[in-house]
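seq as requested:
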Amino acid sequence: MKMVVFGSLNIDRTYSLEEFVRPGQTVSAKKMEQFCGGKGFNQAIALRRAGNEVCFAGAVGQDGGMLLDNLDRNGIDRRFVKQTKGATGHAIIQLDEKGQNCIIILAGANGEITQEDVTHTLENFGRGDLIVLQNEISCMPEIIRQAHKKGAKIIVAE
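struct tokens:
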């Protein structure tokens, strides 16, 4: 059984604040940290750390090098990750002193998955293979349709 995470790759920017920004307010953050993220990225890392061979399919923009490097460092096959001319998906995360968060997400390259990308990727997978999805990329119905037609097992995780 082969496994592919067909999912999102994001650059997460976390801003630590005393409290969330309110309408009309400007505040200074205590710090900003940048991380690799996206539900797809996180799932691929978890599956790999659990000892699975993992292939990733998705998209990054010209600014997505840190995500590609991290996939490589973790031994995840990224041959189906395309690079677009636009920006990588990203999240702006407000984190308050109580540990609560507010998140704004921009799809970026995650929204540029095409039917051709789906076909190109899934022609390498078939009956009994595992396709992991998380609803943060374009072409979800097409991925599910093609994977089902091939007899692959489909998992949609949140």
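Helices lie at 39-49, 65-73, 115-122, 140-150.
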